[in-house]
Amino acid sequence: MELFISMKAEDINPTMFKHMTMDMPSSKTNGYFLAEIRDSEKKVVDILHRYSTILESKLQNLGFFLVENTNRGIIVRKKVDESKDYMAEWEEWVEFSTNLFEDLEGFFDEDQ
Predict the structure, then answer these.
(1) 31 vs 46: CA distance, rounded Å
(2) CATH number of the structural domain spanning residue 69
(3) Stated pTM of the model
(4) pLDDT tens per residue across span 35-47
């Protein structure tokens, strides 16, 4: 499983696992922060898809988040709050995304 944090996620490389990639975007108008959690194993992707509904309902209480399923996992989107300092928001997003990924990774490690 891997995590990609950015303003725009790229295609998965199925040979890379237990990996985290991060691109530092610049401030954009009406932008979204993205965290894509993805895997090449169908079993893992199916579990992520089932989890996405629960995750989205929990995140709605925290603010404007969207969770969508992809053919390789899930993407969590958070609207950039333009009234806040962009770099502070980016740092919070990195911490949030990393914690989410580590929690999911721990779940899959326990399952095996």
Answers:
(1) 28
(2) 3.30.1360
(3) 0.76
(4) 999 999 999 999 9
Number of domains present in the structure of the chain: 1
What residues does 19 pair with on adjacent strands? 2
Tokens of 46: 């199916």
The domain containing residue 54 runs over which residues?
2-111
| CA distance between the termini of the chain | 13
Nearest Cα to 93, choosing from 3, 1, 2? 3
What's the DSSP call for residue 10? Answer: -
Angle, CA 46 vertex, CA 43 and CA 51 arms, to 5°: 125
In angstroms, the CA 88 to CA 69 distance is 28
- List phi, psi (to 5°) of 4: -125, 120
- Judge residue 105's burial from the number of C-beta atoms within 10 Å of its C-beta, 0-12 exposed, 13-18 middle, 19 or more buried: middle
